[in-house]
């Protein structure tokens, strides 16, 4: 067991629904284990500036059900530099913080890893990103909520698409990952799903649309992941429209609405479990790791072991999407 007394908690990178639930879990579990918990505002930006606040049990009341992050978030350019990280470490030392728990995506994890290598600051990362693009965990915090939000939007678009016999291209977030796209596409009954993990040519897409048109489809929805190699939803729609006039074509970009909103029960429970695990892991001497839940079991993944590999899309999801979109 470590003698850690003061633990800093922060959120970093793109916010994700459920981050508040994770902050609450870290604060409450930390206090349960007799630690002092210090909140760090605005991610690495706030760390560099010493923007700290002591957290009490009641500091995290009434946040479990809220989207966003009460500690705010940022993408810090300065922290990417060695000088920036040294400034951040000096602030942590001044505040007598002897361990860190950061909630964020792969960039946030990499930031903590560098701070650990350069200054030996122990840490546990909690994966919080709507993209679900980090290996070492079945799900990241926020992904379930964001995908449900996308499905809700897709259902609404289908109502209007059906009323006008239209073809819609709906762009979803995910950076370089097709997780939100593939699963919102299956759940929303898309005719085609374009993801970065798989090449889809315009010819293939038109063939697919042609086939569904000849089977009397009265509307069609194509889900496009923002990071796809074939281009944005707007670009793909333009190319398709030039050669395929069966439907009137429209484009909807869901954008940041996927980042907000009340977290689902799944994300709240995931965040709560990961928050407690992060405190218990740090106390047991885990460091340079990300907590993950794989097949319902809590695990700790070393940075070097998981960050050298991409998180693959489940191949069977692609197969199912194709079978069902005939
Ligand atoms: O990583 C989360 C995410 O929402 C991605 O899906 C998206 O590509 C990116 O962040 C958008 O970042 P920003 O909010 O900085 O525009």
Automatic annotation (TrEMBL):
Binding annotation for ADP: 24-28, 158, 217-219
GO molecular function, one term: 6-phosphofructokinase activity
Catalyzed reactions: beta-D-fructose 6-phosphate + ATP = beta-D-fructose 1,6-bisphosphate + ADP + H(+)
Subcellular location: Cytoplasm
Activity modulation comment: Allosterically activated by ADP and other diphosphonucleosides, and allosterically inhibited by phosphoenolpyruvate.
Residues binding Mg(2+), per UniProt: 106
UniProt cross-references to Pfam families, sorted A to Z: PFK (PF00365)
Pathway: Carbohydrate degradation; glycolysis; D-glyceraldehyde 3-phosphate and glycerone phosphate from D-glucose: step 3/4
Active-site residue list: 131
Keyword Manganese among record annotations: no
Cofactor(s) the record lists: Mg(2+)
InterPro entries in the record: ATP_PFK (IPR022953), ATP_PFK_prok-type (IPR012003), PFKA_ATP_prok (IPR012828), Phosphofructokinase_CS (IPR015912), Phosphofructokinase_dom (IPR000023), PKF_sf (IPR035966)
Source organism superkingdom: Bacteria
One Gene Ontology CC term in the entry: 6-phosphofructokinase complex
Keyword entries, A-Z: Allosteric enzyme, ATP-binding, Cytoplasm, Glycolysis, Kinase, Magnesium, Metal-binding, Nucleotide-binding, Transferase
Residue ranges of every copy of the Phosphofructokinase domain listed in the record: 6-281
NCBIfam families: PFKA_ATP, PRK03202.1
HAMAP family linked to this entry: Phosphofructokinase_I_B1
Subunit architecture: Homotetramer.
Protein name per Swiss-Prot or TrEMBL: ATP-dependent 6-phosphofructokinase
């Amino acid at each position: 067991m470590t003698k850690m007394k003061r633990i800093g908690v922060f959120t970093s990178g793109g916010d994700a629904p459920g981050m508040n639930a994770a902050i609450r879990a870290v604060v409450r579990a930390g206090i349960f284990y007799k630690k002092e918990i210090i909140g760090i505002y605005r991610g690495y930006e706030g760390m560099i500036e010493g923007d700290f606040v002591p957290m009490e049990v009641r500091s995290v009341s009434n946040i479990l059900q809220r989207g966003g992050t009460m500690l705010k978030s940022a993408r810090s350019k300065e922290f990417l530099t060695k000088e920036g990280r040294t400034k951040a470490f000096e602030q942590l030392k001044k505040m007598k913080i002897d361990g860190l728990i950061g909630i964020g995506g792969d960039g946030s994890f990499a930031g903590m890893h560098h701070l650990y290598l350069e200054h030996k600051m122990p840490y546990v990362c909690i994966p919080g990103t709507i993209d679900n693009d980090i290996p070492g965990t079945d799900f990241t915090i926020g992904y379930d909520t964001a995908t449900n939000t996308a499905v809700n939007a897709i259902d609404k678009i289908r109502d209007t698409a059906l009323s006008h016999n239209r073809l819609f291209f709906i762009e979803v977030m995910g950076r370089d990952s097709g997780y939100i796209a593939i699963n919102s596409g299956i759940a929303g009954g898309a005719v085609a799903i374009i993801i970065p993990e798989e090449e889809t040519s315009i010819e293939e897409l038109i063939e697919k649309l042609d086939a569904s048109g000849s089977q009397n489809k009265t509307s069609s929805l194509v889900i496009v992941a923002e990071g796809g190699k074939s281009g944005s939803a707007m670009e793909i729609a333009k190319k398709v429209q030039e050669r395929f006039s069966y439907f009137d074509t429209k484009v909807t970009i869901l954008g940041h609405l996927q980042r907000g909103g009340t977290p689902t029960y799944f994300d709240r429970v995931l965040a709560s479990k990961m928050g407690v695990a992060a405190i218990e892991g740090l106390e047991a001497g885990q460091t340079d790791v990300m907590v993950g839940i794989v097949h319902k079991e809590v695990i700790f993944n070393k940075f070097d072991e998981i960050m050298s590999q991409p998180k693959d899309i489940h191949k069977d999801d692609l197969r199912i999407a194709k079978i069902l979109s005939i």
